[in-house]
């Protein structure tokens, strides 16, 4: 990479000053600190809080001396439970296993806590099994316990970080970390991939909600407390005991700074900015003894972080004296120039100690072993990485801990969603709510009235919990998946009932008895990572149903309180204007009842809990104001960072301007065909050997020989789908062509699918090819014959093909110009209403095709 300009820090953030103060009085460095960066470095020196321990170092050296090179390389590799069996662990002696967002015991997103624990026991037993001759080195099991132990049914679900940022309450963060750690331990894991200390600068980013704040100071004020909550306080007996887990501070570095808010993109900033904004969370986290740091998917000035030796080794391990180990992100090493998911010595040489190689672990293990043997990775570097990993395992007492179910709280499932844990989460919900408007002091409401609770967020734990909940995207869950939770409606109903009031739930607002007041709960549907990237900050472009609902109730003379669920501030000026009161509730998690705690008065009329939340992200004035952050020169948001009314304030708000700032239509990313139309930039074509690329702009339309005919049909709305009728005269294709190549490389890393909502109306007698094209002579296709034949005739179904299948079948998924191509040589009658990228659990049927 190009050496970056090291500009001296002008205005050091608070955390940096604290860290500098810490280091100046205690000059001692971490065990394997490498050469420090230049004195003019913008990076603070940090005091690693654990003194070098000669007894520990001796244990590590003794163990290392007995390990074969195969065993050492094994420690550097982490596989995913969906692709790695305990038997593999026994054989390959891998250092770690993770459960990715969509990976569950038995493939069931709602697997029981007992099944999770049994799985943890099985991996542990395999790692300790020396029957094949290997050394017994206990495995580390990591999971995305990012808002509580959020992959497991029954766990306490905390508000996502964006809501926690609004609390400005580091002490409560510590409690949240403690509860998360205990619930994680109860189910057998000892490693949480948290906290995220991203400092999101562009709210279009699909991971904005994983960040505490756009302000580095807020992030810095939380990072240390959260690490201490998860791990216990260094120097206390609680540190890394059986009730705590190791943390992963992520994603190092610059994840929140990518251009246009594009997930896994490029953060193009000078090094001083990188340190001051994006680096702010690391000094306090390291000073608190964070045991792991996760490398980021993004690049910094064009160089992928997984290959960035300067930042991983010189800055993080050297200058900042980080004494834990660096873990990679999901095949993140595969994005380094010259690397693939299964082969990347460069990442280890750059300073990564453990690669997250979920489905690629075997190839990665073999190529790394070969690289060590060929001298492409030095013995010293290998030993240093293994020593760092072993150091963490020893500190955690893993060698003496026994199997996960036999540890301090292993198997104590009553801890999942325990009342005292839920009370912590409920407090967090109360403190995170931000009141943006309260005309005529409508709030707080008397619980003694007749309250209507409406909107599709009113009675949905899935919607209020957001992404990273039971599965990666947080979609497709039902009420019964959350035994320890309250919806927002349930919270309001219980309190109103106790006070002698009444409530009615009507998602569509169509009440039976006219209410005194309505609470309308609406907002974003769950998403995670790049699937949540959006082109601008419009709220549900093209769908004004929530606005219409609020307006209808108002027109009927009913005062309306809007409760907005979202993973980021969005442009909702029209909804704010339409409602009397407006609450930004973020993604509160399992404790929907925390909302009633603040919105409703006590039965005696007094205030139960006042609003405390203050915006930790600036609220946009228009839908195009996505990167207007506190401290900037042109700072001019609708509601400033720090804004948030209380009941003591005069809450009246003059009508806001209603121009969105959007010109022209912008399509949702990852949707290629919907409502009967191709997405902007795509065109429909029919093709055969005798007639190529015939545009299909009018309906109906057919190839001259009648081999393929296209007409409009209805699925959910009038003419929102297309019927494709092949005569069998000759092979013919329906093509969605793109003028500019579409890059789905990042979506192909993982289990993202190309999904077609379709209906079969004929028998399937021959292959039906679904393919993608990537230019002259470049394509990959999959036969849908078996899948289609298995579908009930005449019914709409969502059929998914893992994107990886197209890559395996020969396509270059980095430059697709035909997405997709649907081809048949035989007679066939098929209708299609939607073509889009989607998560595994969003498909009703997944096509079985080779992914490796
Ligand atoms: C995410 C990480 C996460 C990991 C494991 C990645 O895609 O970026 O935040 O910890 O997957 O699920
Ligand atoms: C996994 C996530 C991971 C993502 C990365 C998903 O399949 O479940 O944990 O973060 O892929 O693309």
TrEMBL record:
Residues 68-392 form the Glycoside hydrolase family 3 N-terminal domain. GO terms for biological process: glucan catabolic process. PROSITE patterns: PROKAR_LIPOPROTEIN. Coiled coil: none annotated. Residues 433-647 form the Glycoside hydrolase family 3 C-terminal domain. Residues 699-836 form the ExoP galactose-binding-like domain. The keyword Signal applies. It holds the Pfam family Exop_C. GO terms for molecular function: beta-glucosidase activity. Gene3D superfamilies: Galactose-binding lectin, Glycoside hydrolase family 3 C-terminal domain, Glycoside hydrolase, family 3, N-terminal domain. Residues 1-29 form the signal peptide. Keywords: Hydrolase, Signal. PANTHER family: LYSOSOMAL BETA GLUCOSIDASE-LIKE, PERIPLASMIC BETA-GLUCOSIDASE-RELATED. This is Exo 1,3/1,4-beta-D-glucan glucohydrolase. The lineage of its organism: Bacteria, Pseudomonadati, Pseudomonadota, Gammaproteobacteria, Lysobacterales.
């Amino acid at each position: 990479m190009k050496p970056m300009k090291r500009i001296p820090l002008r205005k050091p953030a608070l955390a940096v000053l604290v860290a500098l103060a810490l280091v100046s009085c205690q000059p001692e460095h971490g065990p394997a600190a490498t050469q420090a960066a230049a004195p003019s470095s913008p990076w603070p020196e940090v005091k690693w809080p654990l003194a070098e321990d000669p007894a520990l170092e001796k244990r590590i050296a003794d163990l290392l001396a007995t390990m074969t090179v195969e065993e050492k390389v094994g420690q550097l590799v982490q596989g995913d439970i969906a692709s790695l069996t305990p038997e593999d662990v026994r054989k390959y002696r891998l250092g770690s296993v993770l459960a990715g967002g969509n990976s569950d015991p038995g493939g069931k997103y709602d697997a029981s806590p007992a099944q999770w624990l049994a799985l943890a026991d099985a991996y542990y037993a395999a790692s300790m099994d020396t029957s094949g001759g290997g050394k017994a080195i206990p495995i580390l099991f990591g999971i995305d316990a990012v808002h509580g132990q959020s992959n497991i049914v029954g766990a306490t679900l905390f508000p996502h970080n964006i809501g926690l940022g609004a609390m400005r309450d580091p002490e409560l963060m510590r409690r949240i970390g403690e509860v998360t750690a205990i619930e994680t331990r109860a189910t057998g894991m000892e490693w949480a991939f948290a906290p995220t200390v991203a400092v999101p600068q562009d709210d279009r980013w699909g991971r904005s909600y994983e960040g505490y704040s756009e302000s580095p100071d807020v992030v810095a004020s939380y990072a240390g407390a959260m690490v201490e909550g998860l791990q216990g306080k260094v120097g206390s007996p609680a540190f890394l005991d059986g009730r705590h887990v190791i943390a992963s501070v992520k994603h190092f570095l610059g994840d929140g700074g990518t251009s246009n808010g594009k997930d896994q993109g490029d953060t193009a900033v000078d090094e001083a900015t990188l340190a001051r904004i994006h680096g702010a969370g690391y000094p306090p986290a390291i000073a608190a003894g964070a045991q792991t740091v996760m490398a980021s998917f993004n690049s910094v000035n064009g160089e992928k972080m997984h290959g960035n030796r300067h930042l991983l080794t010189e800055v993080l391990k050297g200058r900042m004296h980080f004494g834990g180990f660096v873990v990679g992100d999901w095949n993140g090493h595969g994005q380094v120039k010259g690397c693939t998911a299964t082969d990347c010595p460069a990442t280890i040489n750059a300073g990564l100690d453990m690669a997250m190689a979920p489905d690629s672990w075997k190839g990665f293990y073999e190529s790394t072993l070969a690289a060590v043997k060929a001298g492409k990775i030095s013995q010293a570097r290998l030993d240093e990485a293994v020593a760092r990993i072993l150091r963490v395992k020893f500190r955690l007492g893993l060698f003496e801990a026994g199997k996960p179910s036999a540890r301090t709280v292993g198997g104590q499932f009553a801890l999942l969603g325990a009342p005292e844990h839920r009370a912590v989460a409920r407090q967090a919900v109360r403190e995170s709510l931000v009141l943006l408007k309260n005309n005529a002091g409508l709030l707080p409401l008397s619980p003694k009235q007749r309250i209507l609770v409406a909107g599709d967020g009113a009675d949905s734990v899935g919607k209020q919990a957001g992404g990273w909940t039971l599965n990666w995207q947080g979609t497709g869950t039902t009420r019964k998946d959350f035994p320890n939770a309250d919806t927002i409606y349930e919270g309001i109903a219980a309190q109103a009932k106790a006070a002698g009031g009444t409530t009615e739930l009507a998602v569509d607002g169509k009440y039976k008895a006219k209410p005194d007041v309505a609470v309308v709960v609406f907002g974003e549907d769950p998403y995670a990572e790049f699937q949540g990237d959006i082109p601008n900050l419009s709220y549900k472009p093209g769908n004004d149903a929530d606005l219409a609902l609020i307006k209808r109730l108002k027109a009927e003379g009913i005062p309306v309180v809007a409760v907005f669920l979202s993973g980021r501030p969005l442009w909702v000026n029209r909804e704010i204007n339409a409602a009397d009161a407006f609450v930004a509730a973020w993604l509160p998690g399992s404790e929907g009842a925390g909302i009633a705690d603040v919105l409703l008065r006590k039965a005696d009329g007094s205030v139960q809990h006042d609003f405390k939340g203050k915006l930790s992200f600036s609220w946009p004035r228009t839908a195009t104001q996505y990167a207007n952050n506190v401290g900037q020169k042109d700072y001019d948001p609708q509601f400033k960072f720090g804004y948030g009314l209380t009941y003591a304030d005069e809450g009246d708000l003059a009508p806001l301007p209603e121009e969105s700032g959007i010109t022209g239509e912008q399509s949702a990313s990852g949707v290629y065909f919907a409502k009967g139309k191709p997405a902007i930039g795509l065109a429909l074509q029919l093709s055969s050997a005798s007639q190529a690329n015939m545009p299909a702009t009018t309906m109906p339309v057919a190839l001259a020989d009648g081999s393929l005919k296209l007409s409009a049909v209805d699925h959910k709305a009038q003419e929102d789908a297309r019927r494709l009728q092949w005569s069998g005269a000759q092979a013919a294709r329906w093509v969605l062509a793109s003028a500019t190549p579409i890059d789905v490389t990042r979506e192909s890393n993982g289990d993202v699918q190309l999904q077609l909502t379709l209906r079969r109306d004929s028998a399937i007698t021959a292959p039906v090819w679904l393919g993608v094209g990537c230019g002259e002579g470049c394509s990959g296709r999959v036969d849908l014959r078996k899948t289609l034949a298995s579908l009930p005739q005449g019914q709409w179904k969502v059929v998914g093909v893992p994107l990886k299948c197209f890559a395996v079948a020969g396509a270059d998924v980095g430059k697709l110009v035909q997405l997709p191509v649907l081809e048949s040589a035989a007679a066939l009658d098929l209708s299609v209403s939607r073509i889009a990228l989607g998560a595994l659990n969003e498909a009703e049927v997944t096509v079985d095709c080779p992914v490796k």
